[in-house]
Amino acid sequence: MLKNAVPPYLKSEFTVFSMTRSTLLAQLSLLVVPILYYGFRPLVVAGASMLTAVACHVLFCLIRGKNISITEISPLVTGLMIALLLPMNVPLWLPCIATAFAMLVAREPFGGFGRNPFNPAAAGLVFVTLCWPRLVFSYFDPSRASSFPLLGAGTYSMVSSPSQVLKQGFKPDILPREMLWGNFAGPLGTTGILIIGACGILLFLTRAAKPEATLCFLGAAALAAALFPRILCSPLTSVKYELLSGSLFFCSVFLVTDPVTSPRTLPARCLYGAFAGAMTMVFRWLGTYEQGACFALLLANAAAPLMDSAVFRLRGWEGKPNEE
Amino acid sequence: MPRGVKLDLEKEPSLKEQVITIPAPKTLPAPKMFASLRKKAAAAKVLERARIAEIVDELDGEPLYKKLKRFVSADALTLVAVCFDEDPMTSATQAVFRENAAKVLAGLDAAAHACRAVSKKIAAASREEFRYVPKNRAGVELLTAGDRYPAAVLLRRKWMEKGKSAGFIGGQACAALADAVTRGLAQNETVVTVAGNGASRWVNCRVRIGTPVRDVLAAGKLLPETSVVAVGSSVNGRSITNLSEPVTAATRCIIAMKGLPRRKTLPCVGCGRCERACPRGIIPWMILQQLELEEPNPFRLFNVEHCIQCESCSIVCPSGIHLVDAVRRAEKIKEGRENKGC
Ligand code: SF4
Ligand code: SF4
Q1: Strand A158-159 vs strand B166-170: parallel, antiparallel, or unpaired?
Q2: Residue B227 CB less than 6 A away from ligand 1
C-alpha cells in the first residue's frame, strides 16, 4: 500500500539533538579532572543539578500535556552548566534551586527550549547569586588538603579566588601560566582553561557552535582589561588575569554561543559578543560581586532581538536585490 | 559562504548499467514524424520545430519553444545545456549525456541558433564527464556543476550575480531537439531514473512518454516494504499513490522509498542554517517569526515569492521544521496584502 508523504524526503544529520549532545559531552569532559582530584563529589553535584532539571522539565510537560521525549536533552545541559558555574563545595541544594529557577522561571514559561529569551543557566545563576552570594562565592582551597564526602559538607579550608583578589584590587598570588592548568579556586567547571579552550575549538570545528560571538566577547573583555586594569600591573598581565579568572572564559565558550538566546545575524552576533564582554568587565569593576559574566549575558540576551532589528534596518528590510 | 546544501550523491548505482528501454504500452499512439530540416534552416524554423515536436524542457517542465522564444529577446545570451541532475539519486540526464554527448551538442547548437545565443556552454556533473564530449566541439565551453544542491539554481545565481544573461536548458531537451531537427521526430521518449531504498535495482530507463509509472517501477524490482513513491526528485518530488499516472517529459526520476526519516519538530533554535542554504535569498527563520505574529509585516517577508520549493531549508533545519510550508503561507499572505493594497 502506498502512502502519501510530504517532502523533503531527506534530512541532514545535524539536528538539535546532535548539537546539544556535543555541548553536553564537552561540558561533561570538564568534570573529568575534578573527579580525578576529588573523587565523585563533582559528579554528585552535577547529577543533582541535572536531575532537578529533568524533573522540572517532566513536571512542566505533564502540566502542559506535552509529550516527553528522550531526545530532549537540553535540560541536562542547563543543569550541568549551573553545576559547573558553582563551586564544588556548595551545599547540594544550591545548584538544585538554581536549576529549578532556570527551568521553571527562565525557560518553560516562555515555551521551553528554543523560545526562551534569556539563557536559563545564566538566569539560574544570577538568581542564586542574588539570594546567597556568600555561598556562591566561597571557594575551598585546592592547594590544601581537603576531603569531600559524596554528600554533606566535607572538610576544607577556604581561600579567596583570584577574581575575589582582583576585586579587592590586589594581585592574585598565582601566575597566569599556572592558571591555565586550572589549579586555582573557582567554580567547579570554569578553572580548566585548557580543557575549555579545547572544547571550544572542537565545537567550532564541528559547527555545533559559532565562534564569532566568543571571539568578540573575549576581544572586548581583553580590551577593557588592558585599558582599565583593576590592579597595578602591565596591561598584558591584567588581560591575562581577567580572562583566566572566574567564569569569564567558560561563559565565552558555553553561554555566549547558545544560538537560542543570541542574535541571528552575523554582525549582530559580533556586537552581542562585544557588548556582553564589555558589560562583564563593567560588572567586575563596578558591581558588588566578583563575577559579572552571567549578569552581562542576561543584559545582552535582552538586547539581542534589538541588535537583529538594527542590522536589518541598516541592511534594508527588503533583503538582497531580487534576481531576474 | 556557499549557498545550498551538500548532499550525498548516489548516482553510481544507476549509472553502472546502460540505459535500458521499457517497451511502450500498445495503447499509446505511434510517435509523430515530420520531414527533417535542412542543415542551415532559419532560426524561426528551428523554433517552430521545437513547438510542433512538443519538446518539454525537463529542467522545469516548460515547453522548449516558449523558453527559447523568451531567450531571443535577451542580448548577449549564453546558452547553457544542463547535463547533470540536481537531485542526488537521479542520473537520467547525465546518462543521456554519457550515451550520446554529440547529440546533446547538436541540440545545443540548434537551440543556440534558434535563440541567437552568442556563446554555448555545457554544464556537466564533474570534470570526469568531460571525457564523453566529442573532440570537435566548435566554440562550446565546458563547466562543472558545483557539488551543492540545488546545483542548477546555484549555477544560475552565479551568472546573475555576475550580471550576465544566461539561459538554461536541459540536456534531454537538447537531445530531443537534435532528433526533431535532423530526424524529424517529435519528442516521444524520456529517460527516467528508478532509484531509492525501496528499489533493488537502480537503473535509467528510456520510457515512452505516457507510459504508466507502474511499468517503469517494475524495472527497479521493488522491495515489498516500499511505502512511498515519489516522482520528480528524491528531495522534493511529489509522492503519488496511483501508479497508473503517466510519465511525462519532465519526469526525471521515480523514487521508491521504504519509509521516511522521522522528523521531530522543535522550535527554531536560531542557528541560521536555513538562511545560508536558501539559493533565493529568503530568510526562512524570519518568516517563521513573522508568521507567529498576528499581523505579519509583509516587508519582512522578503523574497518569498521567489521560493522554488527546493526544500534546502527544510533539509538543513536541525529543528526539523517544515520551512517551505511557512514560506508558502507567507507568500499567500503577501499576495493577499498586495491585492488589497492596490
Ligand atoms: S525558502 Fe524556498 S527557495 Fe529557499 S531554500 Fe527553502 S524551498 Fe528553497
Ligand atoms: S535552520 Fe531551523 S532552527 Fe536553524 S534558524 Fe532556520 S528555522 Fe531556525
Answers
A1: unpaired
A2: no
Q: Is B43 on the interface with A (CB under 8 A)?
A: no
CB-count burial class (<10 Å; 0-12, 13-18, 19+) for A187: buried
- Let me know if residue B203 belongs to a domain: yes
- Same domain for B43 and B137, yes or no, is yes
Structural domain contains residue B91:
yes
Distance A11 CA to ligand 2 centre (A): 13
Residues within 8 A of A (CB atoms), B 91-150 only: none
Residues in chain B: 342
Residue A216's nearest CA partner among A178, A169, A263, A183 is A263
Residue with cell 556535543: A22
**Residues B149/B152/B155/B157 CA torsion (nearest 10 deg):** -90
Residue B238 has which C-alpha cell? 511529489
| CATH code matching the domain that covers A16-314, chosen among 2.30.29, 3.40.390, 1.20.950, 1.10.3430 | 1.10.3430
Please indicate, yes or no, if residue B19 is contained in any of the structural domains.
no
Say if A211 is an interface residue toward chain B (CB within 8 Å): no
- pLDDT band of A319, cuts 50, 70, 90: low
Instruction: Examine the domain organization and report whether B278 and B201 are in the same domain.
Output: no
Q: Which residues contact A196 (CB under 8 A, 6 or more apart)?
A: A30, A189, A190, A249, A250, A253, A254
For residue B342, the model assigns a pLDDT of 47
Test B270 with A318 for CB contact under 8 angstroms.
no
Model confidence pLDDT, tens digit, residues B288-333: 988 888 787 777 787 888 898 889 999 999 998 999 989 998 888 8
**Given the C-alpha cell 552565479, which residue does it identify?**
B158
Cβ neighbours of B7 in A, within 8 Å: 10
Q: What is the pLDDT of residues A28-58, one digit of tens each?
A: 999 998 888 888 888 999 999 999 999 999 9
Distance spanning both ends of chain A, measured CA to CA: 43
Residues 6+ apart with CB under 8 A from B142: B121, B122, B123, B124, B130, B133
Among the candidates B165, B182, B199, a domain finishes at: B182
Tell me which residue in B237, B299, B320 faces A318 most closely, judged by beta carbons.
B299
- For residues B195 and B135, membership in a common domain is answered with no
Question: Three cell numbers at A5?
Answer: 508523504
Q: Is B16 domain-assigned? A: no
- Top residue of B271, B280, B289 to mutate, by most chain A CBs within 10 Å, is B271
Domain match, B296 and B317 both: yes
Mean pLDDT confidence for B15-38: 85
Query: Which of B275, B285, B312, B316 for a ligand 2 pocket mutation test, highest count of atoms within 8 Å of Cβ?
Result: B285
- pLDDT number for residue B24: 87
The residue segments making up the domain with residue B316 are: 273-334
- In total, how many domains does chain B have? 3
Cα(B279) to ligand 1 centroid in Å equals 7
- CA of B92 from ligand 1 middle (Å) equals 24
Q: Tell me what the mean pLDDT of segment A93-114 comes to.
A: 90
Across the interface, whether the CB atoms of A8 and B311 are under 8 A apart is answered yes
Chain A contact present for B326, CB below 8 A: no
